[in-house]
Amino acid sequence: MSVMSALPFLKPMHVRTTVSPGRQRRHTLPASEFRPLSPQDAISVFEIEREAFISVSGECPLHLDEVRHFLSLCPELSLGWFEEGRLVAFIIGSLWDQERLTTEALTLHKPQGHTVHIHVLAVHRTFRQQGKGSILLWRYLQYLRCLPYVRRAVLMCEEVLVPFYQRSGFKVQGPCAVTVGSLTFIEMQHLIRGHAFMRRNSGY
Ligand SMILES: CC(C)(COP(=O)(O)OP(=O)(O)OC[C@H]1O[C@@H](n2cnc3c(N)ncnc32)[C@H](O)[C@@H]1OP(=O)(O)O)[C@@H](O)C(=O)NCCC(=O)NCCS
């Protein structure tokens, strides 16, 4: 059985049906659905990023070509939350193979790595402050537990968001070596697998 088919939480949470006059059930768009993203979702992803980041700081974690790049290389490390078929929140990750993040981590996917680098988590502005960011992150971390090669998840965030990630179990690693313009970041990590994995595998 594939990893994806073994994961009920990646299947639609609820599928609405309507009853036609002939009393036959007809499926409509899922009210709420979690699924990995594909390159076809890149425009919707970038629309959310544009509002969330570019309109605020002029920068964003992933430009459109980078979104397409990662969704082509490692779509299984992304997760989108769709309501009525519309993207409302997403996470994009890739694999990394070093202890700490460097500038290279912003653009590379290291297929041999055991660390998931979460490039971006964003929620569409009309859906913020409703718990969606926390729920999506929780589901993503649960999903990563099913991927045998993943040992930990790391991310860089602005200091103001440290408490948000701490509530999901991330721990502060310290200042991040990566800066973007005048922006500085805190690096955080969440262990996915503990000592048993470390005994069986050396390195990252
Ligand atoms: C950060 C983000 C993903 C949180 O998602 P969300 O669905 O709004 O968050 P939740 O409803 O699960 O949790 C709300 C909590 O998140 C924290 N939070 C959310 N946005 C915040 C912000 N801009 N600054 C500081 N804390 C923030 C707060 O602790 C808030 O709780 P509070 O209002 O009681 O203080 C979302 O606000 C977003 O997409 N922001 C723009 C993009 C972004 O900054 N992404 C993070 C990149 S590292």
Give the SSE layout.
Blueprint: E1 17-19, E2 25-27, E3 32-35, H1 42-57, H2 64-73, E4 78-83, E5 86-96, E6 115-123, H3 132-144, E7 152-157, H4 162-166, E8 171-175, E9 186-191, H5 195-200
Parallel strand pairs: 6-7
Antiparallel strand pairs: 1-2, 3-4, 4-5, 5-6, 7-9, 8-9
Helix pairs in contact: 1-2
The structure holds coenzyme A.
Q: Bound small molecules, which ones?
A: coenzyme A
The structural class is: alpha+beta
Largest sheet: 7 strands, mixed
CATH architectural designation: 3-Layer(aba) Sandwich
* Rounded Rg: 18 Å
Number of strands: 9
CATH class: Alpha Beta
Order the strands across the largest sheet as they lie in space: 3-4-5-6-7-9-8
- Strand-residue fraction? 25-35%
Taking all residues together, what is the mean pLDDT?
A: 87
The separation of the N and C termini measures 27 Å
- Write out the CATH superfamily name: Gcn5-related N-acetyltransferase (GNAT)
CATH topology: Aminopeptidase
Q: Note the run of SSEs as H and E.
A: EEEHHEEEHEHEEH
Distinct helical segment count: 5
Helix content: 10-25%
User: Rough shape?
Assistant: globular
Characterization of this structure:
With 204 residues, the protein is of the alpha+beta class. It has one domain: Gcn5-related N-acetyltransferase (GNAT) (Aminopeptidase, 3-Layer(aba) Sandwich), CATH 3.40.630.30. Helix content is 25%, strand content 26%. It has five helices and nine strands. A seven-stranded mixed β-sheet has the order 3-4-5-6-7-9-8, sandwiched between helices. It has a two-stranded antiparallel ribbon with strand order 1-2. Helix 1 (42-57) crosses helix 2 (64-73). The radius of gyration is 18 Å and the shape is globular. The two termini are 27 Å apart. 28% of the residues are buried. The chain binds coenzyme A.
